Amino acid sequence: MLEVAAVSRNVVSYICQVLHNNLWPQGLGRNPMLVALNVTTTLSFFASGSFQGSTEDLCSISQSVNYGQQINITRPIDGFSEKIFDTLDKKPETEYEHSVICSVSGSQYITTFDGTRYYFSGGCINTLVTTDLFTVSLGTNTCEEADNGNCIEYVTLTVKAIGISITLTKTGRAFLGKNETELPFVYGSATTLSVHLASSIFLEIMSMTGVHIQYDFKGGRIYMILQPNMVIETRGLCGTYNRNQLDDFMSSSNQIESVPMAFVNSWKGSTECADSPLFPVHKPCNVNHQKESYATEKCSIIRSKIFKNCHFISPEPFYDQCRRDVCSCSDSETCLCTALAHYAHVCLLHGAFIDFRVAIPECTMNCTGNMVYTLTNHACKRNCYYLSTGSSCLKLPSSGHLEGCNCPENMYFNPHIKNCVANM
């Protein structure tokens, strides 16, 4: 006898966590538990149909389904515990389920709001995302020429309604227009626009326009978070957020490009930049065999037991990116740690904390003063500036906790001395 149970993708991810962590209750057949998977969606590029296979196949397939879609699992009633299914269906959604995220990491890899993942060669100014309310621009260098392996030079938010631009640079500095500004920076009130140091490696912009930017200025990662209600409003390198990957490569002239680099070239912000080749050969490990050996050894950490609790998210794309990043990077260790940190960040968004820095000596983060390496969430609530001025933290969708050197419990960050104090 079969029964259909509709569950969201975070439930499927949770099933996979249970399997990979050997938490499956005794008495339930684990390998293979036959299921029929029917991906139901309004998107034309996902054909309705069914799949029958083991739970491991289910985990693999679930990674290609966009968040927010429903997955119908047809299961034998006697072969699956009703108690387990009730638990899964009631499992609280993670923060990520309420956020829409576009990321830039490593040697110019972008994952769009709708989940399309592609590489571009960098070395220009490009529009990362633009709406009627704001524009975010990205300044990059080619990774072979970048200092310390950080290919991102800066990220700029322009808020159209108030006519100001804030630029965050790889040196950890912030500029209002062309003039450097001290941090924290608040325009009007913190609920309008605020910029602050969220940890020793992350700068953060929070804006009333609904965009939330987290920039790892030391490692070269950007996470852009939108409110879910901004559907169909975005264009640029982060794609057209509308839960449809088919039009993610919408050019600045409203043409859907079949080649990522043609799409990227259309969003250049400077005529001084030469067009990137349409079909870049990005296989740096093939031409640098010394780095290839190092990259293969070190990036295999992603496949190891260190990240085991996150392997319900396929490690292979992150492993491949790690190898490319390390082989093309001027500072292999920095790029290795950034690649591992990006995978760990994605893991954390799905509820799996991976403390890889403890296990990898090259990636150990040494903190100054009385700061400690930890995760932080809503950093402005523990910043003396906001507390002393009575400024309220802007409530925006979160992309989870940020790592870095932060203040321990019951202490607050004083931006003037860049250290922690017991009280204001």
Q: What is the overall pLDDT average?
A: 76
Our count of domains comes out at: 3
The SS-based structural class is: alpha+beta
Strand content: 25-35%
Provide the CATH topology of the largest domain: Protein Transport Mog1p, Chain A
Amino- and carboxy-terminal Cα gap = 65 Å
- Rg calc: 22 Å
Helix percent band: 10-25%
Number of distinct helices: 9
Overall geometric form: globular
The total of beta strands comes to 22
Describe the largest sheet.
8 strands, antiparallel
Under the CATH scheme, which architecture of the largest domain would be assigned? 3-Layer(aba) Sandwich
Give the C-level CATH assignment of the largest domain: Alpha Beta
For the largest beta sheet, what order do the strands appear in spatially? 7-6-5-18-17-16-15-14
Outline the low-pLDDT stretches. Answer: 1-97
Identify the notable features of this structure and list them briefly.
424 residues; alpha+beta; Protein Transport Mog1p, Chain A; 3 domains; eight-stranded antiparallel sheet; 9 helices; 22 strands; 21% helix
